[in-house]
Write a structure and sequence with these properties.
The protein is α+β, with helices and mostly antiparallel strands and 616 residues long. The protein folds into 3 domains: 23-236, no CATH class; 259-431, Immunoglobulin-like (Sandwich); 435-612, Sandwich (Immunoglobulin-like), CATH 2.60.40. The chain contains 7 helices and 26 strands. It has helices at 8-41, 60-70, 90-100, 124-132, 154-165, 185-193, 212-224; strands at 259-263, 271-274, 283-289, 295-306, 312-319, 327-329, 346-358, 371-379, 391-396, 405-409, 419-420, 423-424, 428-431, 435-442, 450-461, 469-486, 491-494, 497-503, 505-506, 523-532, 543-544, 549-561, 570-576, 592-596, 599-601, 610-612. The strands form 3 sheets. Strands 14, 15, 16, 17, 18, 19, 20, 21, 22, 23, 24, 25 and 26 form a 13-stranded antiparallel beta sheet that branches. Strands 2, 4, 7, 9, 10, 12 and 13 form a 7-stranded mixed beta sheet that branches. Strands 6-5-8-3-1-11 form a 6-stranded mixed beta sheet, with no helix packed on it. Strand 24 (592-596) and strand 25 (599-601) form a beta hairpin. The longest helix is centred in the N-terminal third of the chain and has 34 residues, at 8-41. The termini are far apart.
């Protein structure tokens, strides 16, 4: 019996029916497989939420995303989305193609190749490896810029595919919008033969930016090589062109990662905080994930304690070296959390949206692990309850009723209780004004007998001070080698009024010559303190208006200079013991005393603990 061919209309109906059946079976298999996948990735998740909830798993995008998720090629964002509508950046393209091609990431550092690629970032090893393999390159003329955040257009993506998978070039195609001589002509046939962009018909649109959805579907079609028939130009499809080798399925993440919260290696010094202003760093801590998975931090709870926390309005949270905060920690954000024990302190919470991602470590020599988080305070105005003279400190520590950090693994979707130690900042003083800088300058030449200008001490009041501040006392440290000075010959004056002076006294000190101390008219040598504590009122006014700067000159009387060959004469003046919190003024306590309002202060916020005049 001879088989007669079906009429074309009947054949078309039969193909359609078979297509529907096959498509239904494929979708059923996909959903069943996805159900197993979801069961593995949502263990312990309330409600059994599916991963990447913005993906329709019944669509081709769902098939493609699921295919590459199972193979560890792509992952979603920390909020459970895929964001298929967003464009693909050059950095993302380098990562996806390297992983899809099965290439090891061996070149881990940029080493100055590109001016806009930082070291130790998540994208650095992928860009470096992709460039070495010739998959991607910098921009002409000198290829010094990579432009990692630039979007990838269709033509660029086709070239990357050809170089990654060693695809045949100059394949036939039926695109109508390929100009003669265009650089990407040799790659256009890849898009046609593998049917990478099915919604574009006979127009490649080479300059069109590629979305995450289009990129993952194009890669999926490259690996499955499904070539439809029946459209104009289908005669150009070459069935001998093979699909790319199917990638093996990797084990889905089942090991739950961990998170450590530790003090940062850089300590935060004590600060003087001006009312109504933002302050400097008062707390630094590090968050580090282990090698199992990336960790998402969704909530931070910091605690303030001290004589009064009413002055603290909120805490701005920054990543290290960034100028814009990623979150604000406030009292209001703690409303849904258990209240803080008043004995412990007052809580400030930050609900992070988007979450803060702590990447699992990559073994890159010289690159730090984890990330550093910095907290900076905002001090309330006086009218809003700020308390001048109050002291507080901020720390990160678990409350007996609630953890300080809420986190979960991005792959395992499991809650991760952080391994943490208490991270505590220094005491900070709330005030209406402070000094912004202080410096010591040498004024003398080689020491010679007679009256000599020893050093100049310049103070600058902060420009944001709310009221004047008054300097009341200074203690200089004099170091005289083969030089002796008269103990009653020291005085301090303002260069603007050199006639009016404040007498300064030499304090009793075992470092002075013979240990005799401040005997009137005695000759002093060695190391000894000189106390000038009659500032703040006439005859020498030590009051500073906001942003005002003024110098005070220390004058001394040199009695003798010894010209010993073994050690030449030298004379140096310094200011020390002034930059750490203290409660008293004196040679064995603080070497400065000043006031804001009626509040005495015995230290100046300064990064240097010792200021010296230069030796002549």
């Amino acid at each position: 019996m001879r088989w007669r061919p079906l009429p074309s209309s009947a054949r078309a109906r039969l193909i359609a029916v078979v297509g529907v059946v096959v498509a239904g079976l494929a979708v059923s298999a996909l959903l069943a497989s996805h159900a197993r996948f979801s069961a593995q990735t949502t263990t312990g998740n309330a409600g059994g939420m599916l991963p990447l909830f913005d993906v329709d798993w019944r669509s081709e995008e769902g098939s493609a995303v699921f295919y590459f998720l199972r193979r560890g090629i792509i992952n979603g964002f920390s909020d459970g989305t895929f964001r298929g509508h967003e464009p693909v950046s050059r950095a993302e393209a380098a990562k996806i193609l390297l992983q899809a091609g099965g290439f090891p990431v061996t070149h881990l550092q940029n080493n100055g190749r590109f001016l806009d690629v930082a070291e130790c970032e998540w994208y650095t090893p992928y860009i470096a490896s992709a460039v070495v393999r010739g998959i991607i390159q910098g921009y002409p003329p000198r290829h010094l810029l990579f432009a990692l955040r630039n979007t990838v257009n269709t033509a660029e993506f086709l070239k990357m595919l050809a170089l990654t998978f060693n695809l045949r070039e100059n394949l036939p195609h039926s695109f109508y919008d390929i100009p003669s001589g265009a650089w990407y002509t040799r790659y256009a046939g890849i898009a046609w033969q593998y049917n990478l962009f099915h919604d574009r018909g006979a127009f490649l649109q080479a300059d069109r930016p590629l979305s995450r959805r289009e990129a993952v579907i194009a890669l999926f079609r490259l690996f499955t090589a499904t070539r439809p028939r029946g459209r104009p130009g289908s005669e150009w499809f070459d069935p001998s062109i093979p699909a790319i080798s199917v990638l093996p399925v990797t084990e889905l993440a089942t090991k739950v990662g961990s998170l450590s919260i530790t003090p940062d290696s850089v300590l935060t010094p004590p600060h003087q905080l001006i009312i109504g202003r933002a302050g400097d760093q008062i707390l630094r801590f590090r968050a580090e994930a282990d090698g199992a998975e990336d960790v998402s931090i969704s909530h931070l709870r910091l605690t303030a304690s001290g004589t009064s926390t009413a002055s603290l309005s909120s805490l701005s949270l920054f990543r290290e070296n960034e100028t814009r905060p990623f979150a604000q920690a406030t009292r209001k954000a703690c409303a849904d959390a258990p209240p803080t024990d008043p004995v412990i302190g007052e809580a400030f919470c930050a609900n992070l949206s988007p979450p803060l991602i702590v990447r699992k470590p990559v073994a890159i020599p010289g690159c730090p692990r984890g990330l550093t988080i910095v907290a900076r305070p905002l001090i309330r105005p006086l009218a809003s309850g700020a308390v001048p003279g109050s002291v507080f400190r901020v720390f990160l520590s678990d409350d007996p009723r609630t953890p300080a950090v809420a986190a979960h693994g991005l792959a395992s979707r499991q809650t991760i209780p952080p391994r943490s130690t208490r991270v505590t900042g220094n005491d900070n003083l709330v005030m209406t004004g402070k000094f912004s800088s202080v410096a010591v300058n040498s004024l003398g030449a080689a020491p010679i007998p007679g009256t000599t200008l020893l050093a100049s001490l310049r103070f600058v009041a902060h420009s944001q001070n709310l009221e004047p501040i008054t300097l009341q006392g200074i203690i200089f440290t004099v170091d005289a080698v083969n030089v002796s000075l008269r103990s009653n010959g020291f005085s301090l004056f303002d260069p603007a009024d050199p006639v009016t002076r404040v007498p300064c006294a030499v304090a009793q000190s075992p470092a002075t010559s013979g240990g005799s101390g401040a005997v009137a008219g005695a000759e002093m040598t060695g190391i000894f303190p000189v106390i000038c504590d009659a500032l703040g009122a006439p005859p020498v006014n030590g009051t500073f208006a906001p942003a005002e700067q003024r110098a005070f000159v220390l004058e001394g009387n040199i009695a003798q200079v010894s010209l010993a060959l073994s050690s030449p004469p030298s004379l140096q003046v310094s200011l020390d013991s002034f930059s750490q919190p203290a409660n008293a003024f004196g040679p064995s306590a603080s070497h400065v005393r000043w006031t804001f309002g009626s509040t005495p202060v015995f230290w100046i916020e300064h990064p240097v603990t010792l200021l010296r005049s230069t030796l002549p």
